[in-house]
Amino acid sequence: MTDPILQLQDILDRPHGPVLVAVEGRHDSELVSTPHQHVRGQLFGSLRGLLSVGVDDGVWIVPAIHAVWLPPNTPHSGRSHGPFHGWSVYVAEPACADLPQRPCTLRTSGLLREAVLRACNWEPVSATPLTGSRAHIAAVILDEIRSLPVEPFGLPFPRDPRLQRIARALIADPADDRDLECWAAWGAVSSRTLSRRFVTETGFNFTAWRQRARMLRSLEMLATGMPVTAIALDLGYSTPSAFIGLFRRTFGETPAAYRARL
User: Fold this and answer.
1) Which of the four, 55, 60, 182, 187, has the lowest number of CB atoms within 10 Å?
2) 97-152 pLDDT per residue, tens
3) pTM of this prediction?
4) What is the domain partition of the chain in residue ranges?
5) Which tens digits make up the pLDDT trace of 48-102?
């Protein structure tokens, strides 16, 4: 999939122009977008495949029924996991005033998806304002961004640099089973401080944060076709059933059901 940010750079960097620009694309292998930002707000989602999105304070996982909203000038990076078919909507900065002011994941609706796909067919991309039915469709998309429920698919990072180092190590190797005391010693921080600040800075205690990191990584692994048993063992679970049980409690379905839907 051609990076839409590069493809539409001329439009995206203009403070004026159409209130909304939408693009759709496919990619047969991994797609990597290096850290960047632009003056337009961006909503992007997946029709098939899985995305992970990096922002300053965390990582966002985007399954096929969710989308990520990024306000204007938000630094971010992205990566797909396996074949990917998705879309992006870029919203002019003035129209973002009453949209979410922080990055978030949204549960997409059928109305949003159909409106976005209709907007993706507006070719060629023009710098002129939208009128008529196109203006109405753009208004529907903006209203959906404004009103759709926020979903907790992010993994917030702690602000303390010592805790960030620990968090990034856990993301790099979710199967690392060192306990809190060992991680505190490795990060040159007391176990009491590590425990307390993880809660105050991320909203999760250390154990829950690590489990969440493992669950989100499992979504990436499922998207690549990796067997459930191999995923469970690679993530440090003693048995596949232990992993399957936690996955069901976290996402409301088994890994096999999730993969079939993905």
Assistant:
1) 182
2) 999 998 888 878 889 989 999 998 886 555 667 888 999 999 999 999 999 988 76
3) 0.67
4) 4-151, 157-261
5) 776 778 887 677 767 666 788 999 999 998 877 667 788 999 999 999 999 999 8
Whether domain 157-261 has CATH 1.10.10.60: yes
The pLDDT tens digits of the residues spanning 19-43 come to 888 888 887 767 778 888 888 999 9
Give the SS3 label for residue 248: helix
Name the CATH code of domain 4-151 (choices 3.40.630.120, 2.60.120.810, 3.30.70.100, 3.40.50.1110).
2.60.120.810
Q: Report the alpha-carbon distance of residue 136 to residue 158 in Å, rounded.
A: 41
Closest CA to 18 of 115, 100, 138: 138
Cβ atoms 157, 58 nearer than 8 A: yes
d(CA 127, CA 187): 51
How long, in residues, is the chain?
Answer: 262
- Report yes or no: 231 and 241 within 8 Å, Cβ to Cβ: no
- Cβ atoms of 25 and 83 within 8 Å: the answer is no
Tell me how far apart the alpha carbons of residues 88 and 42 are, in angstroms, rounded to a whole number.
Answer: 7
Residues 6+ apart with CB under 8 A from 262: 48, 49, 50, 63, 64, 222, 223
pLDDT of residue 1: 40
Query: Could you please report the per-residue DSSP string of 187-212?
Result: TTS-HHHHHHHHHHHHSS-HHHHHHH
DSSP 118-134: HHHT--S--SSPP-HHH
What tokens were used for 195? 């425990």
